[in-house]
Design a protein that fits this description.
single chain, alpha/beta, UDP-n-acetylglucosamine1-carboxyvinyl-transferase, Chain, 4-stranded mixed sheet, 32% helix, elongated, binds uridine-diphosphate-N-acetylglucosamine, binds phosphoenolpyruvate
Length: 419
């Protein structure tokens, strides 16, 4: 199994190109199931979650062709199977995103309940309740969601809590439903907006994405289109924190600074000088140790839970005391015990991690437990004295394209080793 071996101490300096967003590409790939015509997607990141989704669509009969330059062509016309089996779904929770599109276009779907509980229970009750309100008959048995509908009907859906993939699933279901759908208390994440833009490019009528009320007028049919996936704001944030922790500087290209307000605010508080252009961000720590910061996760536009582990790592070596409050997932502090193995001084009280910055971390073998926890451990390894060996890096490959190569370009000593 592959591991990452990091020798800490290098001050990062250089330029990195940010890839397409995992959390936009995944729902958009699922939404291609709605297209009655060929779709070409560009800026699709090269990630394990993407290949898993392609395998999932491929098993349904969808024809996918990978082209040069992060492009994929998708033709759904040969589809003959409307199911998502456990063996694929268990590795990736986003596979639940095929439920809405399959039901809306083909009137049936059989999707395994997403397994595992890496960062919390993560139920999908709100996805199911919304589809039922649109007229779907749904049974949950034997670990599968079995859903049927003649044609979904538009409905007013008041979401009990803000759910990103829940909003996306219901929006995708609504675009081919009869009549109007109103999704209230919708997630406002930029990835929801990217999906809505893609749906509209296929001929859907979606308005209000990016606000908490999304209006959808169902149409009879969607057509094929060409679409470019948005930049990954979490990959962007991760590289900014890496540069800040190593007291270095970095310039990130092909990104969207306008989507990172909460993260950039915290980095400025930590002492970073930040400049932005339309599609680039430059961060410079000018050799200074970061100041600890207080972070509280919440739905967009507040601070993203997917950046929490990285800031936890930053606080470990910062000057002062910083608190990390996690309000989205009930079990998203699994990086803490591993950071402690490197010498971090962190105490967890309920949903708050209290970090006292230490002068130095010391390298040790650590184990990745989920995607962003792994990112936090890699960042800590970059500043730890000696060698850090990060195990179970399949988690990091789910969401980062060749992280070791991009960090090496910035001057880090990091390489993939097989054991
Ligand atoms: C593929 C993708 O886009 N993943 C992102 C998505 O996950 P995901 O869409 O799974 O996260 P949600 O926004 O749905 O989860 C928010 C909260 O709602 C709860 N909930 C959700 C649905 C439901 O039916 N019932 C319920 O109780 C969850 O357990 C969680 O406590 O948003 C999260 C929150 O920004 C991010 O961390 C993930 O990276
Ligand atoms: C939690 C994440 O992803 P997923 O919802 O796919 O598990 C993430 O991207 O940090």
């Amino acid at each position: 199994m592959d591991k990452l071996l990091i020798s800490g101490g290098a001050m990062l300096d250089g330029e990195v190109r940010i890839g397409g967003a995992k959390n936009a590409a995944l729902p958009i790939l699922a939404a291609t199931l709605l297209a009655d015509g060929p779709v070409t997607l560009s800026n699709v990141p090269h990630l394990k979650d993407i290949t898993t989704t392609m395998e999932l669509l491929g098993r349904m009969g969808v024809h996918l062709t990978v082209e040069e330059g992060a492009r994929i062509q998708i033709d759904t016309s040969p589809i003959h199977d409307f199911s998502a089996p456990y063996e694929l779904v268990k590795t990736m929770r986003a596979s639940i995103l095929v439920l809405g599109p399959l039901l809306a276009r083909f009137g049936r779907a059989e999707v395994s309940l997403p397994g595992g509980c890496a960062i919390g229970a993560r139920p999908v009750n709100l996805h199911i309740a919304g589809l039922r309100a649109m007229g779907a008959e749904i049974q949950v048995e034997g670990g599968y969601i079995r859903a049927r509908a003649e044609r979904l009907r538009g409905a007013r859906l008041v979401m009990e809590m803000v759910t990103v993939t829940g909003t996306e699933n219901l929006m995708m279901a609504a675009v081919l439903a009869a009549g109007e759908t109103l999704i209230e208390n919708a997630a406002r994440e930029p990835e929801v907006v990217d999906l809505a833009d893609f749906l509209n490019a296929m001929g859907a009528r979606v308005e209000g994405a990016g606000t908490d009320t999304i209006w959808v007028q169902g149409v009879e049919r969607l057509v094929g289109t060409d679409y470019r996936v948005m930049a990954d704001r979490i990959e962007t944030g991760t590289f900014l924190v890496a540069a800040a922790m190593t007291r270095g500087r970095v310039r990130l290209r092909n990104t969207r600074p306008d989507l990172l307000d909460a993260v950039l605010t915290k980095l400025r508080e930590a002492g970073a000088r930040i400049e932005t252009g339309e599609d680039w961000i430059a961060l410079d720590m000018a050799g200074r140790r970061p100041q600890a910061v207080d972070v509280r996760t919440a739905p967009y536009p507040a601070f993203p839970t997917d950046m929490q582990a990285q800031f936890c790592a930053l606080n470990c070596i910062a000057e002062g005391v910083g608190t990390i409050t996690e309000t989205i997932f009930e079990n998203r502090f699994m990086h803490v015990s591993e950071l402690q193995r490197l010498g971090a001084d962190i105490r967890i009280e309920g949903n708050v991690a209290l970090c006292h910055g230490v002068e130095r971390l010391t390298g040790a073998p650590v184990m990745a437990t989920d995607l962003r926890a792994s990112a936090g451990l890699v960042l800590a390894g970059l500043v730890a004295e000696g060698e850090t060996l990060v195990d179970r890096i399949y988690h990091i490959d789910r969401g980062y394209d060749n992280i070791e190569e991009k960090l090496s370009v910035l001057g880090a000593s990091i390489r993939r080793v097989s054991e």
